[in-house]
Q: What sequence folds into this?
């Protein structure tokens, strides 16, 4: 049987570091409701993402897509730059 693969996860975040070669660190922020106080709390995670042309700069909003493991920590690729930093 030929099964179709599922959609890969996509996240939008901000580039925090571009010091590595072909790699950027992207911080993704989400809002979560606190179970007791019902207040929205920000949760942040950092992902190492592959940037083949080294085009991302610090502060850029980017979309990252889940991919196969590229190295020990890299499992995401930069799929597009949504907004360049000023």
A:
């Amino acid at each position: 049987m030929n099964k179709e693969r599922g959609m890969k996860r996509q996240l939008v975040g901000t580039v925090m570091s571009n010091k590595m070669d072909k790699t950027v660190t992207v911080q993704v922020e989400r809002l979560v409701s606190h179970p007791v106080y019902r207040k929205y709390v920000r949760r942040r995670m950092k992902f190492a993402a592959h940037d083949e042309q080294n085009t991302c700069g610090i502060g850029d909003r980017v979309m990252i897509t889940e991919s196969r493991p590229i190295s020990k920590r890299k499992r995401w690729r930069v799929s597009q730059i949504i907004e360049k930093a000023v």
Remarks:
- The first strand starts at residue 10 and ends at 17.
- Residues 10-83 form a domain with the OB fold (Dihydrolipoamide Acetyltransferase, E2P) fold (CATH 2.40.50.140).
